[in-house]
Amino acid sequence: MSNGKCGITVVVDKSNTLGVSIDGDIGRAMENQQDRFISLLIDDLMSADPKSIRDDDILKNAQSLMSENNTNTMLAVNNDGLFLWRSTDVRLGYLR
Length: 96
Hints:
Elements: E1 8-12, E2 17-22, H1 23-32, H2 42-45, E3 52-54, H3 59-68, E4 75-77, E5 83-86
């Protein structure tokens, strides 16, 4: 669908991160649920417990978790679990 690029939607409310949906989730739903795709909600597509790391952690830990979970994107969250940014947005050092 996107030739290897990872499009990601982070679903948040005022107090926390609810989940994520990546372009692959949408592509699979388009293929596997053609008859009802137009009526699906983000709740039907998103992963409700996305992998995340605290914003004050070091990138080495994020790299390890990403490798262990076979993912190329991890969310950085604050102490309250509120989404701040994707770890792929940060190149070196600490996540803040």
